[in-house]
Task: structure prediction
Amino acid sequence: MTRPFDVSKFRKSITKAVPGMAVGFSDTVDWISTGNYALNFLISGDFQKGVPLGRVTCFAGESGSGKSYIASGNLVRHAQQQGILPIILDSENALDSDWLLALGVDVAEDKLMRFGVSMVDEVAKFISEFMKGYKEQFADEPYEDRQKILFVVDSLGMLLTPTDKDQFEKGDMKGDMGRKPKALTSLVRNSVNLIAGNPVGIVACNHTYASQDMFDPDDKISGGQGFIYASSIVVAMRKLKLKEDEAGNKITDIRGIRSACKVMKTRFAKPFESVQIKIPYDTGMDPYSGLLDLFEKAGAVVKDGNKLSYNKPGIEPIKEFRKNWTDEKLEIIMKDFSSWTDKSEPEEPPEEPPEELNNSVSTKKEDTNENDGRGNSSDT
Result:
């Protein structure tokens, strides 16, 4: 009789032999909302879940496209509401307390930590030392009892390499010869391994530049492709002008921006989906912005003359002009939207034909081949 393999004994021995090795799956438990239901859904497949802890997320876009608004503003605010400690590593020196307070962020020292950084090496050293102390403190604590942490790196594009610094001091600006993409790739790869299995998430902002490829017009993310491979979520953002008043009427003045967000990569939902989010300068982002377009694209809301209608058995039909779709009406569809997006039950495979029929079909095919051969030879 074969002796059974002792899995538990092997697991204990291998984790003891290789310190730091994670055992089992790292399923995502904690999520932080981006402050917009439509963007949450495109990232995670859930209107309430945005960015996960235990993973690396990247928001990349041109200047003024809303990267810092979401990463350093909305995500930090929602993290604080969930008891998660945000740590901002600011390389742009652009964050000030008044701006964060206007977005609802608590800037108290025990609620938010902000550090100014300038080098890729400084970010790597900071995260490495922090996680070393974190693991020592919570080594024997279960996951749910550990302090939840959110790192926000704003931004990767402004970080320098030692070569950049040396050349600047010498007045000889030749570029870093590709060292920065390699340094960023190493930073993200090591960070992924450090935070694995812990309630610690990393959100990074990065810059983009216009594509020169006419067949691939999407903006390109600076810093190479290495850190994109290591990130679980990558959202590309573009800045468009918002020329609408509060009632949705077209005007000539610019009242804010429309942030065109395209989810280039996600491990939790369908990638390459996009949504436009309106961010007025006066009132800030509406969490329901982009939802109606999302529902219309999914077929849940359809055009009915000059109006948009929502019809489903058991629910009172909703038919309104686009401007009259209130948050309450959108809430009704949100609660019921899963039925529109759930995959249909897989079809049962067709029954195999009887063996006799299979034999007759194969025999008939062989006969046909032989006849074809004889026919060809006779024609010849």
